[in-house]
Amino acid sequence: VALVKGLVEGLTYRAMVNAKNACGWGAFSPVSEPLTLGAAAFKPIASAAPLLEAVDSTSLRVHFSPPPVRPGAPAHESVTVCVKAGDGAWQAVDATSSTPFSADGSGTAHRADSRVALVKGLVEGLTYRAMVNAKNACGWGAFSPVSEPLTLGAAAFKPIASAAPLLEAVDSTSLRVHFSPPPVRPGAPAHESVTVCVKAGDGAWQAVDATSSTPFSADGSGTAHRADSRVALVKGL
User: What is the DSSP letter of 220?
Assistant: First the structure.
């Protein structure tokens, strides 16, 4: 580490370094990120993008991690959580009522150590995103990247995709499909069943009947597998 004194408050500085050995000086490093001296140098940096969790058809939770505290900077005091629906305007979330409001400063910010914000009074069927920023004694820091979108409603509670299944040969005309059901989304109902599909070469996909263990055209006439079965025998191949 190198201490540099006698600089000017308010100016923006960058740095680069190079090393020397018995053969001479090497090339300079890439240039550092800029740093503006003064209070701005101690404002919080941006945190990682928050994660959204559907609670029901009109509410969600925003999970966030406050950014690390800059060396020498004061501790984070609060966090502003902002949400928007579709291409609408960003709205801050009031920590007391858990409802969005226009960012006019009238709401209550969230504690920096809360790490989750409930947002109520939303609209079923709309797609929401969120971002957060932190505040300390030197002011508000930069906003985080925007979260992945979440559409409220039944679709938000459908199962996510599971990992790819594994195939095991049983004999020359049968195999087993080993699968792991995906994790249950927070607040979602338990998995009920699993459809196992197979195809030969470039042929059509066929669902596997859990009773007969044979493929059939995906017309809904077969029996799905229990979600906790984790393996499906496929015969008649």
Answer: S
Query: How do residues 72-106 score in pLDDT, each as one tens digit?
Result: 888 999 999 999 999 999 999 999 999 987 655 55
Q: Report pLDDT digits (tens) over 131-171.
A: 999 999 888 888 999 999 999 987 777 888 889 999 999 99
Other Cβ atoms less than 10 A from the Cβ of 140: the count is: 15
Please give the full DSSP string across 105-156, using - where no structure is assigned.
S-SPPEETT--EEEE-S--TT-EEEEEEEEEETTEE-PPPPPPPPEE-SGGG
Q: Which residue has the tokens 């005091």?
A: 77
Statement: the pTM of the whole predicted model exceeds 0.70: no
For residues 110 and 117, the answer to whether their CB atoms sit within 8 Å is yes
How far apart (Å, rounded) are the C-alpha atoms in residues 231 and 225?
Answer: 9
* Distance separating the N- and C-terminal Cα atoms of the chain: 67
Q: Which of 198, 193, 164 is nearest to 179 (CA)?
A: 164
In degrees and rounded to multiples of 5, residue 155 shows phi and psi of: -60, -30
Torsion over CA: 81, 85, 88, 94 (sign): negative
The CA distances from residue 155 to 34, 118, 152, 184, 188, in Å, are 43, 19, 7, 13, 10
